[in-house]
Specification:
It is built from eleven helices and nine strands. The chain has 329 residues and is α/β, with parallel strands linked by helices. The strands form two sheets. Strands 3-2-1-9-8-7-6 form a seven-stranded parallel beta sheet, covered by helices on one side. α7 links the parallel β4 and β5. α3 crosses α9, α4 runs parallel beside α5 and α9 runs parallel beside α10. The longest helix has 18 residues. The N and C termini lie far apart (41 Å).
Length: 329
């Protein structure tokens, strides 16, 4: 495609978004074909205009704690915690309540907006779920920070218990495009995830749902994920960058380029003009310049501090970066 045609396609899509239109699927897929330097720059600049028009200038921050680790029954090829692979991942049962609350207070005192418990396994249930609910109830009531949870493919009954404990946002990633997911996981499906999300929304939860990029999917499949997420209408879309884990089937996956990461951020912004796009795992390998540009053009939320099984940055470093990008923390 000629550069002039590419920039014209971007300009038309941008104008439609700025005028309040929801872009049809075919237009969004056409944006994935932008490939010239001029077209890519137009795409990135267009995403920044959308972000500046429709998104708050306060950065939405959250923190996560790995509340149960390893021995997961699911065979997700990217995951260090799957029992199907030998990764040397730390394994433990439910984190002690006082440790979880210590981390929650630490983050609350530094201005982080939300605290989430994340647990390995297909679904947290029984006594373990009761323990999680008790921790999250105490965190919300006593430590002054909003709560979230990522506890797997919960039933409506389990989700209701979580809601009754004061948690009003639930996290369940779709992970990747429906056309690509079966090549990465066979122990559950996208439809299983969508059932959990619909049950959560019926109860009243806000939903946080996104995925991982750089697992071998095409740019078009990344847009397929973005389009599928429009069914979910999430309050927040976390975008993780694959960190290949030794011992997993994806251990030798070539890293996605920094330019491709920026393009993906921009494409998600065109598909979701008003939604929080959340920088999540894997960004530690990016240059500071790329992180800064990504926040400027699209990423108006983030998981801050240390992450699950890969080390993130410190809260102080994140604050500095976010402020430089033009947001308040």
């Amino acid at each position: 495609m000629e550069p002039e045609k590419e920039t014209a396609i971007v300009a038309d899509a941008l104008n439609r978004v700025l005028n309040g239109e929801t872009l049809p699927d075919e237009t969004l897929y056409s944006l994935t074909e932008i490939d010239s330097p001029a077209g890519i720059e137009a795409l990135l600049n267009g995403a920044q205009q959308i972000t500046e028009r429709f998104c708050p200038r306060k950065f939405d921050s959250c923190s996560i704690v790995n509340a149960r680790s390893g021995k997961c029954s699911e065979n997700c090829k990217w995951c260090a915690q799957s029992a199907h692979f030998h990764t040397g991942c730390n394994t433990y049962d439910i984190i002690p309540a006082d440790e979880a609350r210590r981390v929650a207070r630490y983050n609350a005192e530094r201005g982080v907006g939300r605290f989430s418990l994340v647990a390995s396994g297909r679904a947290v249930s029984g006594k373990a779920l009761d323990q999680m609910c008790e921790i999250l109830r105490d965190v919300k009531e006593k430590d002054g920070i909003s709560t979230c949870a990522s506890l797997g493919l919960l039933s409506a009954e389990s989700l209701q218990k979580l809601w009754d404990s004061g948690v009003h946002r639930y996290h369940c990633n779709l992970e990747t495009a429906p056309s690509f997911f079966p090549t990465l996981c066979t122990t559950h499906t996208i439809d299983d995830k969508l059932r959990t999300i619909r049950a959560a929304k019926q109860i009243g939860f806000e939903v946080c749902s996104g995925g991982i990029i750089g697992m071998g999917e095409t740019r078009r499949q990344r847009m397929e994920l973005a389009i599928t997420l429009r069914q979910v209408e999430p309050a927040s879309i976390p975008i993780n960058i694959l960190s290949p884990i030794k011992g997993t089937p994806l251990q030798d996956t070539a890293p996605i380029s920094e330019q491709e990461i920026l393009i993906t951020c921009a494409l998600f912004r065109f598909a979701h003009p008003t939604t929080q796009l959340r920088f999540a795992g894997g960004r530690a390998r990016l240059s500071r310049q790329t992180e800064l540009r990504a926040i400027q053009i699209a990423m108006n939320g983030g998981v801050v501090g240390d992450l699950l099984t890969t080390i993130g940055s410190t809260i102080a470093e994140d604050k500095q970066l976010i402020t430089e990008a033009g947001y308040t923390f």
